[in-house]
TrEMBL record:
Cofactor: Mg(2+)
Record-given protein name: NUDIX hydrolase
Domain Nudix hydrolase positions: 47-175
GO cellular component: cytosol
Organism: Cohnella thailandensis
One of the GO biological process terms: ribose phosphate metabolic process
Amino acid sequence: MSQPDIKKHAFYEQTIESKPIYDGRIIKVQVDTVRLPNGETSTRELVRHPGAVAVIALLDGKLLVVEQFRKALERAQVEIPAGKLEPGEDPREAALRELEEETGYRAKTIRHLQTFSTSPGFAEEVIHLYYADDLEAGEVNLDEEEFLTCEAITLEQADAYIREGRIYDAKTLLAVAYWRLGQLAGNE
């Protein structure tokens, strides 16, 4: 199925100029000057990101989650295992890698559920969400600058963590919703 020509969309914004602002280890920031549909110009501050993966992993009917400190929020939070894509890395392989690195479990079965944007108003980041089960023990292999704990929680615990604000990020909220829908349909 071919994609429509985006340049023909009524709201298309043509880039006139793109100015790099910051080139970091994880993100790049640029300011684009664009021509609006009405002919006027404006600027757009954009964050370039390589994308990420996240995994809904169930172990004996419980969701594997990790707790870690998130500097941008100045707080610790509970999240599903996730991580950034390396250049050219296949999202499925990245999901398998991140799951084992953060939780110490390998998935015999993994399937793609959804790819979604995180903050389309200013960032191009997308997250590829996977579902994994039939897990076997592997080996935790955290990055040098990564500090976290892993636990397996019930749906009731997940709901409590949401109420308490311990689960706060969109990918984990979406994961809990997918998990709940799966249970309602008689699946895990």
